[in-house]
Amino acid sequence: MQKQNYVLAALDMDGTLLNTDHVTTAYTRDVLARAAEAGRITALATGRCLSELGYHLRTFSAVRYVINENGACVYDMHTRQCVSRVSIADADIEFIIDLCGKYDMICQFFMNDQAYMRWPEHEDLTPYHIENFRPVFNAGSLYEMEMFE
Fold this sequence. Notes:
It contains five helices and eight strands, in the order E-H-H-E-H-E-E-E-H-E-E-H-E. The protein is an alpha/beta fold and 149 residues long. A five-stranded mixed beta sheet has the order 1-2-3-4-5. Strands 6-7-8 form a three-stranded mixed beta sheet. The protein is globular and about 55 Å long.
């Protein structure tokens, strides 16, 4: 079998590229930079919205693409433009928001590269098993309870 070189590497962020403190090591950043220098294209893959990625986008200057919003958006870091986006129909959004209001749950949605959360900013997230993501939410989400009412 003939050896083939890869052209693009898409790397998951949380739990893979990032450590438990949601940061990368110097070694990881160096490997990404060396891959770019070797002509490889790197992409971050994450469920996060662009607004929640500010620090990481500044840290990973070698990254070309961000596959974000749980795969609904592909963003080109070099051109600073969305390459592809799959949106939810307005009627479906209304149905989802109404449904969320009937249950004890945290609702987050993304609109125009901004994350919004239906949750009081300082409330405990521990029962939902996402307290360790509070720094991510605080850095890039807007807490907009009235948007969901």
